[in-house]
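#struct-help
A.M.: can someone run this one for me? Single chain, 102 residues.
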Amino acid sequence: VPMSCAQNGRADETPARWGGEEFAIRSKHVDQQTLFARAERKRLLVAESAHGRGDTTVSVTISIGTTMVQPDDTIQSLARRADKNLYNSKITGRNRTTMDNI
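D.P.: on it. C-alpha cells below:
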C-alpha cells in the first residue's frame, strides 16, 4: 500500500496544495543538502508506489523544484525560483529533483 506525503512527512514540514497539480512543502531549519535529500526521498517514494488492478499497473512519477529562502525573498520571488526549478526538472527528463545553487 503506497504511503501518502503526510504519512512520510516530518514534524517540521508543512505540505499544501499550490495550484491545480502543484504542491508545496515548507521545511523549517534545514540546510540545502538536507532539503535536497528530503525532496529526493519523496520523489523516490512516489516512483516506487505502483498501483495494480488485474493485469493493469499504473506507475506515477513526480518532478520537483526546490529552493532555499533568501533574506530578501518575497512569496513571489520564492515561488518563481521554485517554479523555475520545477520547470527545469520537467524539461530535462521528468522524474527528477532540481535545486538552484544559492
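A.M.: thanks! DSSP finds two helices and six strands in the chain.
D.P.: also worth noting: The helical segments are 32-47, 75-91.
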